[in-house]
Design the sequence.
């Protein structure tokens, strides 16, 4: 069976922690993507705020 937890040690602060493998995978993907964006001179993308504008628009356009 696969291990769900991974030991992690922060290189800068020296802090240690146990993190879920899934969380580790997601964080690695995010930081890799963000670093690549910065290297290309692009601003890191921010989450798109949720709004009801699409839902309201659909209500208006229904027959």
Sequence:
């Amino acid at each position: 069976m696969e291990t769900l937890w991974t030991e992690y040690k922060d290189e800068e602060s020296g802090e240690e922690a146990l993190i879920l493998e899934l969380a580790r995978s997601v964080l690695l993907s995010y930081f890799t993507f963000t670093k690549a964006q910065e290297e290309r001179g692009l601003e890191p993308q921010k989450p798109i705020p949720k709004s009801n504008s699409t839902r309201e628009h659909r209500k208006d356009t229904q027959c």
Summary: The chain has a mean pLDDT of 75.
